[in-house]
Design a protein that fits this description.
This protein is an alpha+beta fold. The chain is 27% helix and 24% strand. The chain binds manganese (II) ion (2 copies).
Amino acid sequence: MKKKSAWEKLTSAEIEETQKIGEKYKDFLSKVKTEWETIRYAENLLQTKAHKIFKLKEKIIAVAIKGSLPLREGLRIIAAHVDTPRIDLKVHPLYEKHSIALFETHYYGGIKKYQWLNIPLSLHGKIVKESGEIIEWKIGEEKGDPVFVIPDLLPHLASKQMEKKASEFIEGEKLDIVVGNSPIEEEKKEGEEKEKVKAKILEILKERYGIEEEDFVSSDIEAVPAYEAQDIGFDKSMVGGYGQDDRICAFAGMEAFLRAENPKHAILLILADKEEIGSVGISGLDSNILRRWIIELLEEWEGNSSNIAIEDTLWNSKAISADVHAAVNPLFEEVHEIKNAAFLSYGIAISRFTGVKGKAGGSEADAEYTAWIRRLFNENNVPWQAAELGKVDGGGGGTVAKFLARLGIEVVDCGPPLLSMHSPFEISSKVDLFSAIKGYKVFFES
Ligand code: MN
Ligand code: MN
């Protein structure tokens, strides 16, 4: 099948719009780097349009608009995730070695650890005191803020390191972040203080933020790249930035939600947590939360949440699992079977299944539902492509799709392809973002 770049499919007005959306998208990526920041952004942006907002602790949000049909006719659901690969702090993070203070970390999600060395990191956090008081951090994003860094080894002394496999090049235990290098003043020392640099950091944390060392136990602190999203290429056709898996789909979902007009079916946009580690926990979609929220909608909007009304609503619903796909990287094309691969700038990628080896662990969309989506996109001139992630037996992945399917909801994965997914500077195409917004909008209105 002959594929075509989406740039060649859009009208000139649409091409102009890709640049405008690109600006808004870069701003979003630069400002919003954690789950809670994304959820606040979504709530703020969508609250006037939404008829109902569900939220759990700024970790997962769902926004709904009433349709002209009753809920039992099913909803149109788009689910993206807002957690991203990153470096989390351990519960006892702070230590000192050779007069350098560091934070112990534990990485989150599937990363190539060496990519996180010697890049500027910012610290975004919520520190919850015993009293319940929350202290927030966003350090390293403003001009004048310090940044933090995981220091790699100099090449002069790296002959042994350079022989290691990439997976062992830097061990997870060595991914520690430099946070200070000056000793506490003599007069402030409490007794015989041996770790003067650590003491100094603790003093700053107490004075500036009111934080005691034990408070780290009940904190979520995430180290993420400190830089902003930027245009890539002479033609500015691409966006480089952190967290595009899956914030590009979250952003596209929000834009589609804002643009959706007169939906027949009630529409629901879900921005979920914990996808990168298996959708676990109460804020992941492998929980009962979606079912619960749909029951609440039935009760609140129609006063009927009988078991059969719930089941009808779920089984008549259609969903898009909005998640990114792997674009063919010209430097590594050998990992793909090119006839069935996705290309950057070729539009939103329909992926009927995720999973590994013999399609294990994914939920495969049936041919009927895939035909329905294909027709929807074709009728509305949405640039799309259909693809598998990589070569059979080459690896694999998972999304939230199977957790929606489990409830009886028809679902297929549809999202823009990325280059360098899960890296600290992922690459997307502005025309694929545009295609996703357009595709999600017509889905909401279907
Ligand atoms: Mn993803
Ligand atoms: Mn991912």
